[in-house]
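[Discussion] Sanity-checking designs against the backbone

I'm trying to build intuition for which residues belong where. Below is a structure token string of 211 positions. I'd appreciate it if someone posts a full sequence so I can compare it with mine line by line.
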């Protein structure tokens, strides 16, 4: 019996299956603003995603300013959902910061020598790797949190539109992000003003083998 679930938030775990079944990309939004507390809670819960070494390389910029959203839309080849949504989240991975904060990321209940060994092992993993390789690894971890975020938003009644169609250097320049970081996705977020397309997927039977 788990006793440490008091801070899991208000989303019942049983909603995950329904949220996964229901979720689809939403590209038109009500003009209504989203409470900032909801955005903070969504991002806190997205950060509950697991990551190798517990590195947690994901970082977020919440863009609400209309002028900045306009510039972001231009950097995303004019994608209109950025203008229509009250909020667009720029999610990126920053492995330089994750490496620097590794001692903080190690579980405090681990014995000290295990924590220190974990930090050494994590640093060694990236020895001799290029910045691009390192950030690609971080991005693969950040995509786990992206999946969490999309599901959590759906479970809270919000629509989302994840986007990879943007010029990363322009996005970084607009937000003053350091050149080494990797932008994982832009995510428009708001109350849906359309149904979106009915989810269409390859049949899971065609993708799964049991041996
Ligand atoms: C990482 C990622 C990047 C995407 N990039 C874009 C994009 O730039 N523009 C867009 O309109 N849709 C984008 N999509 C939406 C996909 O086209 C969509 O998720 C897919 O067709 C399945 O449809 P659904 O989300 O409605 O279920 C992206 C989705 C993901 C997960």
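Best answer:
Here's mine. Compare freely.
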């Amino acid at each position: 019996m788990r006793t440490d679930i008091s801070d899991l938030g208000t989303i019942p775990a049983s909603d995950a299956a329904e949220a996964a079944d229901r979720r689809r990309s939403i590209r038109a939004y009500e003009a209504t603003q989203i409470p900032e507390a909801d955005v903070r809670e969504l991002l806190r819960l997205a950060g509950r995603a697991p990551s190798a070494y517990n590195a947690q390389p994901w970082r977020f910029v919440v863009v609400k300013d209309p002028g900045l959203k306009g510039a972001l839309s231009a950097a995303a080849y004019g994608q209109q959902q950025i203008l229509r949504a009250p909020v667009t989240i720029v999610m990126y991975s920053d492995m330089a910061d994750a490496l620097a904060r590794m001692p903080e990321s190690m579980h405090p209940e681990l014995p000290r020598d295990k924590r220190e060994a974990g930090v050494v092992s994590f640093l060694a993993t990236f020895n001799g790797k290029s910045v691009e390789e390192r950030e690609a690894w971080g991005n693969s971890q950040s995509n786990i949190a992206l999946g969490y975020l999309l599901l959590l938003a759906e479970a809270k009644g919000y629509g989302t539109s994840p986007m990879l169609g943007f010029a990363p250097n322009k996005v970084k320049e607009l937000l003053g992000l350091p050149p080494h970081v990797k932008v994982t996705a832009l995510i428009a977020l708001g109350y849906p003003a359309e149904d979106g397309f009915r989810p269409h997927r390859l049949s899971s039977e065609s993708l799964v083998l049991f041996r």
